Structures are given as structure tokens and as C-alpha cells.
Model the fold of this input.
Amino acid sequence: MSAVNGSRGGLDVLPGTQGKVITCKAAVLWGPNEPFVIEEIQVEPPQQLEVRIRVLYTSICHTDLSFWKGENEAQRKFPRILGHEAAGIVESVGEGVVDLKPGDHVVPIFNGECGDCVYCKSEKTNLCGKYRVDPFRSTMLNDDGTRFSVRGQPVYHFLSTSTFSEYTVLDYACVVKIDQKAPLEKMCLLSCGVSTGVGAVWNTAKMEAGATVAVFGLGGVGLAVAEGARVNGASRIIGVDINPDKFAKAKTMGVTDFVNPKDWDRPVHQVIREMTEGGVDYSFECAGNYEVLREAFVSTHDGWGMTIIVGIHSSPKMLPLHPMELFDGRGIIGSVFGGFKGKTQLPSLAQKCMKGEVNLEGFITHELRMQDINQAFKLLNEGKTLRCLLHL
Ligand code: APR
Ligand code: ZN
Ligand code: ZN
Done:
């Protein structure tokens, strides 16, 4: 882990900035595959139902990497500020925001919760009618405008969060207040990776104690699935990855068995079915790979097996299964943000982490400063890091 000198104490919010434009630093992306450029940008005050936060820590998730590479057709607007895993402090709130105030410790969420709509009132979904995740959105909902600019040119938003910036503006529905005593550098993980993984086990699979699990893809998200399964008492957690360097780390984080598809002359699902007398109870696809999804689906036990899609799959490919295969009693379901209703449920996940019931140790493998963001992307791209924490 690279050392980053200087720890933060107390409030790190500029005094007297409320209602004013803030000039600060951000990592701006001018086009896919280009290096990020640290620019001096202007951040406007929050408008109605918006919140401006001082980002203290941000980390990099594979979804940032995919967008950087231009793998998703949603990436058309530049310049842009990416980033969606972070933790910080509220600097100011716009008109109508009643549940947040300057000084609150918060984590942003890309899948917002208004608390008021028919979806938010339903226990069956964590998708909000208004603020649900939208990879195609690059402006604020209020006025279809941006709150960032560089040398007078608008800079677009990303996943309603845009955390690769010292200051960012979000809809109130995408900001979760957490315990002031929670360690912010670790709470960063709850913004996406860890919540997505543990929630996929708890809320989407509703995995029971004693169940067997296969996790395809042992990145930050896959290992968070493993942690969720460990907490729920899984009897066996089989990790599948084509990068054998992932196994040593995964072993320290609860994964009990390993399968490298490259080591076998037959498909992984056959190997897993042999290991488990017919298949695992639950499989989780955390690689965002079409062929992997197929293997995950047929790795579960017929009659009751359930596959949970966690990785992001770019269109236009359709599900790789025949409808009649579902008659074998295997199910498949997607999990967005681990099924968590962010604003209402993340604070208690944060508590579980603080009590050590959920182990956040091990996820942050590197720490760098924001100006080293290109190095951090390289590390993730080369499969050398789970989460690289950037200090802002
Ligand atoms: N078979 C098995 N594992 C694979 C394969 C494959 N064909 N291809 C890639 N992997 C592994 C990689 O080696 C890596 O360990 O999947 C893992 C992905 O990990 P990260 O790159 O760290 O990504 P992570 O942040 O965990 O996100 C995983 O969830 O959020 C989404 O878009 C994201 O689809 C991505 C997934
Ligand atoms: Zn993410
Ligand atoms: Zn809602």
C-alpha cells in the first residue's frame, strides 16, 4: 500500500462558500481512453433539492474503468467528471433539502431514493421512480444543466455522482448521511462495491445459512459478495477467476475453493457441479462477461439454483439461455446496488461495518492522491488492485 501523508482532522469544508461558486480541482476526462487531466474547475452552488459536498475520498470501480474505455454507449458527453464511490462532508444544501445539513458526513449513491414515489414506498424494489441509476444521464435533473465548468465550458456529470472532484453537486436523493464517527475512508466502499456485493447476497438472493455459493470474478464486487455470503453462513464459497493472482487475496477474505477456467479442459460449470454434487445453490456473476454469465447460470443446482447478475453487461447482447432451461428450476435475477434502498438502509450497513460484523479490511489495496488517478486506473485495468483509494 502506498503511503499518503497527512491525515484529516475535523471539518474540511471551506468557510463562507455557501451560495458561491467554488473553484477547486477535479480529474476531468476529455475523451475515452485519454489520461485524466487535473483541472481547476468551477462548481456552482446547489439548486433546489440539490446538495454540494466536499469529497474527501473516492475509489475506482470497474464501471468507471468501462466508461473510461468507452465500452458503454452512454459515454458520449465530454468533458466529464467520472467517479461514483466516495465519502465526504456536506458543504451546503439547496432549497427544500431537509434531511441534510452542512457538516454531515455522507456517502453518495448512484441509485437514488426519494422516499416518496410508488417505487420507494414498495418493499419489493430499490429503484426510485425519479432518481434510479441512469447511465445515460449527464446533467442535473432540475434544469438539464451541469454544475461544473472548466474555463467557461460545461463539464458533464456521471452516474449522478461525479466524485473525481474536490466538490460535487448531487440530488439530495443520492446523498446518504452516515454516523459522524464512521471512518470515511472505509465508508467510501459503501457507495458502490461493498454494498452491491453484500446486498446481492442478503437482499436479492436472500441466501440462507449453509448454502453453497459460486462467485464469478474476484474483484472488489465479487469479494464483497463473498463477504456477504460469509456473514450469512455459507458452507462453501467457490471463487472463479481467470487471473490466478486474485486467489491469495480472496482466500484471506472468506473464499474457500478456487477454480481458474484456464486450468481445466472442460467448462467451469461441469467442474463446479462435480465439486458440489450437482451445482451450487447460488451463483453470482461479477465479471460483466457474457460467456461467464452462461457458465454461472448452468453452475447452479437444478430445481432451485439461483443466479444473480451483478456485473454490468453492455448492450446489445441478450441473455444467453433458452427459455425452456428455466423449466429445470434454475432462476436468474439482476441486482442493482445490492437491492439496498440507499438512504434508508445504508446507515445500518455502516453500523454493521463499524461493529466488525461486516469486514471491510482488505478491500482497499492501494492509496494514492487524486493527481495520481491515471496510475490508479492502470492498476485496476491490470487487475492489480481491488480498490485504490484516492485522497482529495
Ligand atoms: N472469468 C472469470 N473471471 C473473470 C473473467 C472471466 N472470463 N473476466 C474477468 N474476470 C475477473 C477479473 O480477473 C477480475 O478479477 O473479474 C474480476 C473483475 O474485477 P474488477 O475489475 O476489480 O471489477 P469490480 O469493480 O469488482 O466490478 C465487477 O461489477 O460493477 C460491476 O462493471 C463492474 O462488471 C463489473 C463488475
Ligand atoms: Zn461501481
Ligand atoms: Zn422514489
